[in-house]
Amino acid sequence: MLWYLFMLLAALFALFLRMQFAIKLLYAVLWGVLCFVGLNVVYLLYLFTVSLFCRNRLPVDKPNAYLRHLALLTMDWILALFRVRVRGRNLERIPKEPVVIVSNHLSRFDPMALFCLLRHRRLAFVSKIENMRLPIAGPVLYQIGFLPLERDNPLQAMRTIRTGAKMMSENGFTMGIYPEGTRNTTSQPLLPFKVGAFVMAKRAGAPIAVTVIRGTRGASRRLFSRADVEVLAVIPKETVLAKKPEELAKDVSEIMARALKKKASF
Description:
By secondary structure, this protein is α/β, with parallel strands linked by helices. The chain is 52% helix and 15% strand. It has a single domain (53-260), classed as Glycerol-3-phosphate (1)-acyltransferase (3-Layer(aba) Sandwich), CATH 3.40.1130. It has nine helices and seven strands. The longest helix has 51 residues, at 2-52. The mean pLDDT is 87.
């Protein structure tokens, strides 16, 4: 009987020690989570403070080096936070000279993925005006060369196209544009193209890098995602200057559509 009592007491003591360890482990995990959340909140407050000093809402001759580095860090941070892994293929095809990069558009992660892959280039995007009005991101985007586009205002859109062409020819910018004009949430591989990107390339006398991105649609709702960015072809500037914007739009749309029917081979 005493032996059974000793066994019961030993089991209760072991259970107590295990509970103590579990409680300590739970506290350690809880403090780790609180620390992680706290650091992210502090970083957001820092970004908000920096954005308060960004008052320029005009095109820039060259991007602010510090803000561009901060934007890269933030985009890397957002992609990691949403567990989006970025991979690129055939990026070496993009000429070193200023170029217009066109791509399909699936989610808000698309420009972040391309911006991080081409971090050594003076890259900026034409972005819808609503993005440029965001409280923290908007003021910084102006400072690193992004241009606002009012899709329902043709005159403003044409001014943006002319400004982007000038930034390319005079200041060495590479411009990224989504010719679909908005995110594609349909079952179709591509939406009808608008010609603004091709008008910009012709005005700047620049080649066009035809690019596709896969895997970003619905990325924020998945545990892990992979953004695959592939450069399909480069249309030389001689061809850009020789063809009409509508012809270029048709050619690029066909190249993208053929590629999107296949799975990424990397």
